[in-house]
Design goal:
- The chain has 66 residues and is mostly helical.
- The protein has one domain.
- The protein contains 3 helices and no strands.
- The longest helix is centred in the C-terminal third of the chain and has 24 residues.
- It is elongated, with a radius of gyration of 15 Å.
Amino acid sequence: MKKIKEVGSYLSLVKFSHTVFAMPFAFIGYFMAVNQQDKFEWKILIYVVLCMMFSRNAAMAFNGFI
C-alpha cells in the first residue's frame, strides 16, 4: 500500500495528466513521418511513447526540485 502511495505522489509531482495530453502531438509527428517514408514500425512507435513519457516526467521532476 505504501508503494502505491509513493507512485501516486510521484505522478502528482510530475503532472502525469500533462504527459497524457501531450501524447497525441507525438503521435501526429510520428504518423506524419511514417506517411512521408511509407515505413511503419511498431518498435519506433513504442520508442516514441517511452521517450515522451520519460523525458516529460524527468523534466517536470527536475523542475520540481529546482
